[in-house]
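Q: What does the assembly look like in three dimensions?
Context provided by user:
Components: two
Sequences:
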Amino acid sequence: MRSTRRVVNIKSDEESGRYSDPPLLVLASLANGPKHGHAMIEDIAQMSGTKLGPGTLYGAIARLETQGLIEALPAEDRRQPYRITAEGLHVLRAQLNALNQFAKAGLKRLASL
Amino acid sequence: MNQRLARLLISAYPHWWRQRYGVEFEALLLAESGGFGNLADVARSAIRERIISPNGPDEPAFPFGLVATRPSAFLPVAMSLMALSVVIFHLFVYGIAREADEGTAAHIWQILMAGQLPLLALFVIKWLPRAPRYSLCVLATQVSAALASMAPVYLLKL
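A: Here is the predicted structure of the complete assembly.
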């Protein structure tokens, strides 16, 4: 019988390259217009390859709303659309710039290997 | 996901959360699949909300000082420490020789250990749902103190 003990689980490039920071993903999703929960999940999956669970999504929405980074718009039927605030745009821009600098520095180091 | 399951999952969230997000969250759950991944994600999120913000995002949770200074929090610890000091005093005075009959020290020890059980139950019922994280810290202290007072009795077979 073959032993499975020594099998190493290596994730594919696509899987290990997924970015998963729910609040940042929500902010980025709302950057091109208001969306409700289901639309955010679809948009984030398309944009980053990360499929947020409903609980994770609403955990992020609750935090961002408390921090004033997003705000609720009038409800459409039972669905609640959200939009990013000016403060949210500022935070999103700052975080993406920081990530960009970090990515550049990391890739530069990898290139020198 | 069907409506009954969605409502069951939402009921695990704190009251304030259900009031604020319940309707829209139910609409989202009905649009999503009821697979294991989503069920686990919602359950984990509900537990997280109960621990991090049981009383709402703006209202701070009960501070640790308030939870730890409740009589049902500190009295069991004090009773365990008193029971431990009774054992230590008995050991100093009479040594580790086992007595045929239970003496006064043994009765005091038993009363102190048994007497804290209703207090422990009261603490768990009253404070664990309100401030789970801090209550677990206090419970760990209570259990540690109880074990410390029981350890010499069992190890020395008193």
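Follow-up: The mean pLDDT of chain B is 85.
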